[in-house]
Amino acid sequence: MRSERGPDTHRTTVQWMGEPVLTLADVWPQRPRGVIVSLNSTPTSVAAGHYHQGSLAQRQLSRLADAGLFRAPEPGQTSFEDVAAEAGIGLADVVRRPTCAERHLIAREIEVGRRSLVVELEARRVALLICIFRRPVDVLLGTSGPPGFQPRTTSWGARVFRLPGPFAPVQEVRGVMAELTQALGSASSVQ
Q1: Where along the chain do its domains lie?
Q2: What are the C-alpha distances in Å from 9 to residues 30, 57, 165?
Q3: Contacts of 58 (CB under 8 A, 6+ apart)
Q4: In what order do the strands lie in the sheet with 11-16?
Q5: Which InterPro entries does the protein's record reference (predicted)?
Q6: How far apart are CA 15 and CA 12, in angstroms?
Q7: What is the pLDDT of residues 80-99, one digit of tens each?
């Protein structure tokens, strides 16, 4: 595996289903209190060397900063890896192969990635999974409820939180994100 990790990039080359793939390295804090789980990275994010470089994903990460999950990056910065890791929050993808859209993934890739990621998350005893979009919730739990904490937990007991969609009404966003803020204030809800 070749890695270009450093302050300016998190790109790495991994073996994915028998082929080398340039992607983003998972971010694993020493003691993760939570992990932001995505389905897979986009070519734009991989080219930039940072997770979630699209405008919709940036909006979602800003909502997480506003909720108190981690501090916002410095003005003009679009990378969240350092501020997330500093707060004990990791970042990981289910599928290691970047694509422009979910429709470019095959079911086998999603299942292989899910199994591999679950092993990593369970081994690290991650208690909180945050999904900025709906699809990773479906992959991890087999179903997805409305935005907010999901009624089901993972096989190892982790809570799963789904953000409202990027275009959700402001009132919905406020209510759901307040739920996360409240949970973050309670040590027992994320440990």
Answers
A1: 27-190
A2: 19, 18, 27
A3: 52, 78
A4: 2-3, 11-16, 19-24
A5: Uracil-DNA_glycosylase-like_sf
A6: 10
A7: 999 999 999 999 999 999 99
Question: Distance from CA of residue 31 to its chain's centroid?
Answer: 16
Q: Which amino acid is at 165?
A: G
From 188, 166, 164, select the one nearest 178 (Cα to Cα): 164
Fold of 27-190: Uracil-DNA Glycosylase, subunit E (3.40.470)
For residue 7, the number of C-alpha atoms closer than 13 Å in the C-beta half-sphere is 1
pLDDT at 134 over 80: yes
Instruction: Give CA angle at 56 (133, 122), nearest 5°.
Output: 35
CA distance 43 to 173: 28
CA dist 160 and 149 (Å) reads: 6
Q: What is the pLDDT of residues 1-60, one digit of tens each?
A: 455 555 578 999 999 999 999 999 999 999 999 999 999 999 999 999 999 999 999 999
